[in-house]
Here is the input.
Amino acid sequence: MPWFSPDFEALSLPEARALQERLAGLVREEDVDKTVRLVAGVDVAYDGGGGHAHAAVALWDVASGRVIETATASAETHFPYVPGFLAWRELPAVLAAFGRLGGHPDVVLVDGHGRAHPRRCGLACLVGLALDLPTAGCAKSVLVGSFSGLAAERGARLPLVDRGEAIGAVLRTRTGVRPVYVSVGHRITLEGACGVVLRASRFRLPEPLRIAHTTVTSLRAARIRGA
DNA sequence: GCGACAG
DNA sequence: ATCTTGTCGC
Here is the structure.
């Protein structure tokens, strides 16, 4: 990850944008070469008025439907939240958490978008490029793009379109519940990404992401009181 | 100018 | 994301 710098705080908005435009060209859309047995989920939580970021990674076993490992890390945030630049704010804590993970996931699900981004380079793409692992974005709301007429049944799916381009998929993971927005992060296809998300979902969000979320929430609580 | 805007 | 209690419903 030659482009990775722990000094993201030093990046100006124009520089961050230029870097994303360049990195978007490095994203590879391809079939995951091996059977997906371990799926990781990553999530981030903040405290200290957003000054501190806590990240949690949950490694989930597809066959048993159980978590086999979790890893966490914290880092100071040096980049504000600006729509389209979320990666520069969350990447430090996320990469630190992965550095503490012993197992090796076949696919990583990220809470946010991948190619469904104004510059086709969201958080999921950056995480995939930095770790050189297959990643997929699974966001709870749209950043860019539109769609209409999604069926209410679990499994229903429609392309998310932006400027005439299909940048991701709107996927219903549970009947009658709001859909999630899936997009390619790196080294995976949209088909593959949707397949993993659907197979890992019992409720609206994939289990790995739900577990990462509860894990990071408790970590933050522990950190706030001092632990 | 007015709204939209991942987490 | 975060600030916040109870409550209605599957």
In short: DSSP finds five helices and eight strands in chain A.
